[in-house]
Structures are given as C-alpha cells and as structure tokens.
Amino acid sequence: MSAEQSKNDLLLLTVEQMARADSDAVRAGVPAVDLMAAAGKAVADAVQERWSPRPVLVLCGPGNNGGDGFVIARHLQQAGWPIRLAFLGNQAKLSAEAQYFYQAWQGDIADFSVSLLEQTELVIDAIFGAGLARPLEGIALEMITAMAERKTAICAVDVPSGLHGSTGQALGMVAPAELTVTFFRKKPGHLLFPGRGLCGELVVADIGIPASVLDEIEVNVWQNHPALWQQNYPWPRLDGHKFHRGHALIFGGETLTGASRLTARGAMRVGAGLVSLAVPSKVWPIYANALTGAMVSKLELGQETEDFEELLLDPRRNAIAVGPGAGLVAFESVRTRKIALAALVTERATVLDADALSAFASDPQVLFDAIAGPCVLTPHEGEFARLFPRINETANGVMQDKLTRARLAAKQSGAVVVLKGADTLIAAPDGRAMINTNAPAELATGGSGDVLTGFIVGLLAQGVEAFDAAAMAVWLHGAVAADFGAGLIAEDLPDHLPKILNAFIQQQALAREVR
Ligand SMILES: NC(=O)C1=CN([C@@H]2O[C@H](COP(=O)(O)OP(=O)(O)OC[C@H]3O[C@@H](n4cnc5c(N)ncnc54)[C@H](O)[C@@H]3O)[C@@H](O)[C@H]2O)[C@@H](O)CC1
Ligand SMILES: Nc1ncnc2c1ncn2[C@@H]1O[C@H](COP(=O)(O)OP(=O)(O)O)[C@@H](O)[C@H]1O
Ligand SMILES: [K+]
C-alpha cells in the first residue's frame, strides 16, 4: 500500500462528510441500493466470522441504518441462522433502497418490544446510524436500556444507536456493542471516548464508495499513525554530528526535581543531540548528581530569568521545554511564567506543559499573546480547564466534544494543542487534528506526561515541525507503553523507547525494499 493510500485510509469523516461521500458516490454512478446491499453483506459476514449460528434479533430503525438491517437479516437467514426481525418506523417513509430490502425480507416483521430480547443471544443494532438527530426516546430508548441491562451481545451497524458519530458522545442511553461495523471510513466518534469504549471491536468495510469522492471533501482529521509523518522522522544523518540533532533546553524546578529529569531523559532518548537542564543554583547538585549525559546549568537566585535568557543567547539551543516540576507556589509561579515568556519571545520551538500552563490560569491571554513561534501546549483535562475555561463552558450541562475543544484551543492560542488522556488529541491552529488511539491505560502513572514533553522537545530540537513532532511523540509514547505492558513506570518510557525506534527503522527499511 502506498503512503498516500494509507494516509487516505486514516482520514476520519464527520457524519455530514460521510453523508456527502455517500451521495457523491451515488452521483458518480454507484446505485444507492448497491451501497446498502454491500453494507448489509459486510455486517453479515463479520457476524458469521465471529459467532456461530444462534438466535438473532435484528432491530431495524426508520432510516437507512434500518435498511441495512433488512439486508443483514436476509443473509443470516439464508445461512440458516434463526432470525427474528423488528421494525420501528413507517414503511411509507423509508428511502427507496431501504424500501427495496424491506420488500425483499421474507420473514415476519414484529413491532419493537422488550420481550423480544428473551430468547435472543445476539442483537443486530440497526436502529439508528449516522442520522440520529436527537436523544432517543420511547420504545427505542426502552429497547436500548433493556439491551444494556441484560448485557446481550450486540453487533452495531455503523455506530451503536445513540452514539454521535462525529463527537463520540452519547445522545442519552447507548448499549455497548461487542462489534461495530462501519462503512468506507471511520468517524471521530468511533475513536473518541466514550464512543470508543461503546463500539467494541471496530471493523471498517469497503462498500464500493470510490476513494475519489474524498477529493471534493475537505477532511483534516486523521487517526494518528506513522503513515502520516514517517517521511518526516528525523533519523540521524550518516554524516551528521551532534549539533545537527539540535540542543534541547529544559527548565527544572527546585521541589519536584524528578519531573524535568524525566523530560530530559525523554529528549535524550528520542535523539536530541544535546540536552541541557537549567535549574536554580541551590538544587544544582541534585540534578548534577543524577544526570550523566545531560548538562546542568545554574540559574542564580534572584536572577533566574536573566540567566535563562543568557543561555538562550546561544542560537544552537533551538528547542525549549518549560513546565514539568517548574513550581507553582507563590514566587515559583511568577518565575515559571517569566521563564516561559522568555522562551516564547525567542520564537524558538517551545513546549509548555504542566506548571507552565497552570501558571497562566489567571490570565491565559498573556500566554496566547506571547506565542509567535512554533509552540506545543500539552494540557491534561485539568490544565485545559484552567487555560480555556470558555471553551469548556457547558450548554444544557454538556461540554463540547474533545475534538472540537482541542481545535478551538489551538486556534485561540496559536499553538499546537495536545489534549491528553486515553484518546489524546493533537490539534493545530489551522484546523488539522489527529486522534491518538495506541495508548494503553498503563500510561496513567505519575511522570508519564513529563516524558511525553521530553519526546516532543527532543523532536523539535531535531527540526521537526510542531504538529508532526507532537503527533510522533504521542504515538511513540503510546507504542512504548503498549509494548512494555503491565508494571510500567514513567522511568521505563525513555529507556524502552529504543526498542520501538529500532522496530520502526526495520519496518521502514522493509517498506523501502518492497517498493
Ligand atoms: N455510505 C453510507 O453512508 C451508507 C450508509 N448506510 C446506512 O445509512 C445510515 C444513515 O442513514 P440515515 O441518514 O437514514 O440515518 P438513520 O438510519 O440513523 O435514520 C435517521 C432517521 O431517524 C430519524 N431520527 C433521528 N433521530 C431520531 C430520534 N432520536 N428518535 C426517533 N427518530 C429519529 C430521522 O428523522 C431519520 O428518519 C448509516 O448509518 C448506515 O447504516 C448504508 O445503507 C450504506 C451506505
Ligand atoms: N487511561 C489512559 N489510557 C491511555 N493513556 C493515558 C491514560 N491516562 C493517561 N494517559 C496518558 O498518560 C500521560 C499522563 O500525563 P499527565 O496527565 O501530564 O501526567 P503526569 O503529570 O503525571 O506526567 C498522558 O500522555 C496521557 O495521555
Ligand atoms: K446502529
């Protein structure tokens, strides 16, 4: 598969974009009835690959998702499965293609009723798909609530009914599926929590929509994956020396000294040519004692910012990280702000994390106004709420989804925003975004974010553009943790990185040989 093709496969379509892809395909000559036939067949195949024949209840809703349900029921029935089918809606209002498959269905059609679940071992949820306009109510809601309570095995068509495909948010109740089969491309809601947890295994089926329809749709959200950035990965040059690989400067505070040391180790392992820590002179011995490969510079009491600025007079210190362990109590907070602003004024590539974000909570605009060069902000949800309170405001008690919030924050701040969590978002001010999906829950351990900051600043030092550096770092961070597995602590992340990088090099070499 070519790089362009895999990039294309990683695109995520909103519900509206998917509807557009669908209608453009029809306009390009693919009959709508063929799309529905292919969609239903793909779901029936996926079901037969995973389950042995058993009593199945197919729940068909009023739209085209329901239309798919009729196709699925027919295939499974022809394969000898015991099928019951229930329909919610008005036959006269079905689309032409759904009407066609409704007519083609040979069996009985029941009304929705919770009692149907009694002799059911597998439910095909074809109630609502991408077209859900408002929260579920009435018998649809009762059905889904009963399915969730009984923990019936569910195969969802396109999305588990009630889940919003663009946001990953539940519109009221959603029964978690074991398997979700979607069509053509994934949607953000399949990858963003809670949606990701509700979809179970996710299968993307080709239903005959030509990829060329994407040429007309402006898509700028992807699932984060090396195919998107591996051509920009900064492998060392054969004739290189350490200054070709950049010099990362990291500020270290005086209380939680471990945090910035983790950052430094992350930056070193990811390949920065040189790494320096700049730390208050009174704690210099702690750092100097603990670090071998990194250099430690002293910032004298009362003139820490000036000393930091002096270090920045050397243009070879080309990437800066401030935040991990920087300090927030009283005078520390003021110092953290000053150091962050001193970094930003150079317009060199800068990562601000942790305390360097919280230090601006009282006036985030001061931070945003100072961002002029390449900058990456790496808030977790708590830090995000402090910096972007307006973006987090709720309407009817509901906050906007994570993708929207990260993109608004990137636009507002002028920085690449890495909104961390189990479904970390990477968003650029120009609207591009990636959703990361390879991170295991083992990363929820103190200090893992500090290492991520180190990976980012190490890549920035090597000249990688901010959005790519953030995407690479987040992916590597997840890959390392997933490969390490149980028992992971933050210290393991830098030290296990070489294994992942070496595997990555081998894969790239293989790909080159194949080409
Ligand atoms: N390329 C594609 O996108 C294809 C899509 N197909 C299927 O078509 C589906 C999309 O079809 P539709 O746009 O008809 O969407 P749905 O099947 O989700 O149905 C929407 C219908 O439900 C009604 N509705 C929405 N919210 C409601 C609520 N809360 N309570 C009661 N009624 C509500 C709407 O008024 C509309 O009539 C996809 O999910 C997929 O399963 C397939 O048929 C094949 C091709
Ligand atoms: N449940 C989870 N699944 C996957 N990744 C997670 C999970 N919880 C946290 N992470 C990741 O772990 C890191 C934690 O960073 P952060 O919250 O800054 O912690 P710390 O300050 O202790 O380093 C982030 O990269 C985040 O995306
Ligand atoms: K569904």
Automatic annotation (TrEMBL):
Binding note for cofactor: Binds 1 potassium ion per subunit.
Catalysed reactions, as listed in the record: (6R)-NADHX = (6S)-NADHX; (6R)-NADPHX = (6S)-NADPHX; (6S)-NADHX + ADP = AMP + phosphate + NADH + H(+); (6S)-NADPHX + ADP = AMP + phosphate + NADPH + H(+)
Cofactor: Mg(2+); K(+)
Enzyme Commission numbers on file: 4.2.1.136, 5.1.99.6
Chain residues that bind (6S)-NADPHX: 64-68, 129-135, 158, 259, 325, 380, 450
Domain YjeF C-terminal: start-end pairs: 225-504
MF term (GO), any: ATP binding
Domain spans labelled YjeF N-terminal: 18-215
GO biological process, one term: nicotinamide nucleotide metabolic process
Keyword Lyase listed: yes
Residue numbers binding AMP: 420-424, 449
Record keywords, A-Z: ATP-binding, Isomerase, Lyase, Metal-binding, Multifunctional enzyme, NAD, NADP, Nucleotide-binding, Potassium
Function as written in the Swiss-Prot or TrEMBL entry: Bifunctional enzyme that catalyzes the epimerization of the S- and R-forms of NAD(P)HX and the dehydration of the S-form of NAD(P)HX at the expense of ADP, which is converted to AMP. This allows the repair of both epimers of NAD(P)HX, a damaged form of NAD(P)H that is a result of enzymatic or heat-dependent hydration.
Subunit structure: Homotetramer.
Protein name per its UniProtKB record: Bifunctional NAD(P)H-hydrate repair enzyme
Name of the gene: nnrD
